[in-house]
Design goal:
This protein is an alpha/beta fold. It is 44% helix and 15% strand. The chain is built from 17 helices and eleven strands. Strand 5, helix 10 and strand 6 form a beta-alpha-beta unit.
């Protein structure tokens, strides 16, 4: 008798202590759960062994990446319902399903073991970052982390990001704007906040595929130095720059920002890069950028932020993101980032939240990936494509639910007299 789905539903509700809001379809063809709800498809019982070995988010993620778990129906609705079960439990999500906590859970876990099949658990999917040794955020370890994420292949990023090749939050003047228009408007907003003029020197930290550098040089006449740790990004950016005829205005280096020594610059843009810096290095990051700016120079720091924890020492890097997407990436609350910039000597003059804009951006990227799915799988791997689909869709929900945000912080290295060189009304951005 095919009853795996009913047994899974019953056991899940026992372990979670709450009704399961999604339907389950099991490998034996059985289904159970609320009719019409998004369906969690468990294609192989190996996924259950993963969950028993790593309860919570990482176990689910391994099953997803391996293709053993999927969602049939609205992806966002399904993820929202499943994530809600974990979000409600916060840091205790793993404890809530740990089989050794009390007799009721031990009994439920025993039933799950019976369904899961023989041990040992399968190895993690090959797309998972293996355990890294050494101190966090050394130059060597940062290079490896950047390579894992950004050296997936430029062809893959072209499919996901579209022609703009901008891998950060777009700026939607209208909700129905195209992704290309919104990314162009974001780059222009950054240039206007920085007050760029003809011939000024701009340092673009974490320059990606060169989109910011090209826009600043072509539209504002800036002399741009872009630095990245990704050789694939640098090669792609240099070709784009040559095609635009801007090699006399833009230099792209494969270089750590900590090794830039040719300041002072008139302006610095850091767009979606500071998330990689890490809490142990953030003051160093702020100090280095401050030293590279001339008096009166401006910094535009565009950075994802998390909500503050009641106990900040309890903050943990998200298991799925750390294992599959951004190894060693850390998010800080907005207030901490602003405070660190001020401690380094910056005067923070404006903060603008773009949280809803990032949710829209991510939904565009998910659509792009789904539109090119067979090709994305071919040039990467089925697991890698599934990592990206899950990470981008789940991130869109996190922005929509205000679990994370993204902010543009405009800061100035004021002159000795205190002159900021900013207009009285900064929001005119000229």
């Amino acid at each position: 008798m095919a009853d795996a789905a009913l047994r899974l539903t019953t056991l899940a509700e026992e372990l979670l202590g709450a009704p399961l809001p999604v339907r389950i379809r099991a490998w034996d063809g059985s289904e159970s759960g609320p009719p019409g709800a998004p369906t969690l498809v468990v294609r192989h019982r190996r996924a259950l062994r993963r969950l028993l070995w790593k309860p919570g988010e990482l176990g689910l993620a391994r099953g997803w990446v391996a293709g053993e778990i999927d969602i049939d129906g609205d992806l966002y609705a399904g993820l929202s319902l499943i994530a809600g079960l974990l979000w409600e439990r916060g840091a205790d999500a793993e404890d809530a399903v740990h089989p050794l906590r009390d007799p009721r859970m031990r009994a439920a876990a025993k039933g799950l073991v019976e369904i899961a099949g023989p041990w040992p658990p399968p190895p993690p999917p090959p797309e998972e970052v293996r355990r890294r040794s050494g101190a966090l955020h050394t130059r060597h370890r940062d290079r490896a982390a950047i390579s894992h994420h950004y050296d997936v292949g430029n062809d893959f990023y072209e499919m996901v990001l579209g022609p703009s090749m901008v891998y950060s939050c777009a700026y939607f003047e209208e909700p129905g704007a195209t992704l290309e228009d919104a990314q162009r408007d974001k780059l222009d907003l950054v240039c206007r906040k920085l007050g760029l003029t003809e011939g000024e020197r701009l340092l673009d930290v974490g320059c990606g595929w060169g989109s910011m550098a090209i826009h600043a040089a072509r539209e504002y006449g800036a002399q741009v130095t872009g630095v990245t740790l990704s050789r694939e990004q640098a090669a792609y950016a240099r070709k784009r720059i040559a095609d635009e005829g801007l090699t006399d205005r833009i230099e792209i280096r494969v270089q750590d920002y900590r090794d830039v020594r040719d300041g002072p610059y008139d302006a610095i843009s850091s767009i979606g890069m500071a998330e990689h810096v890490g809490s142990v290095r953030y003051r160093e990051y702020a100090d280095d950028l401050f030293a590279l700016l001339k008096p009166g120079g401006r910094l535009l720091n565009h950075q994802i932020a998390r909500r503050p924890e009641r106990d900040e020492s309890a903050y943990r890097i998200d298991d799925f993101i750390d294992a599959y997407v951004f190894p060693d990436g850390e998010l800080a609350p907005l207030g901490r980032t602003v405070g660190t910039l001020e401690e380094a000597g910056f005067e923070v003059r404006d903060v603008e939240s773009l949280r809803e804009h990032y949710a829209l951006t991510l939904r565009h990227w998910v659509r792009n990936l789904e539109r090119h799915w067979p090709e994305a799988v071919r040039i990467t791997s089925p697991g890698r494509a599934r990592v990206w689909r899950l990470y981008m869709a789940a991130s869109a929900l996190s922005f929509e639910h205000n679990r994370i945000g993204v902010n543009q912080i405009l800061a100035v290295r004021s002159g000795q007299s205190g002159d900021s060189a900013l207009p009285l009304r900064t929001r005119t951005w000229n």
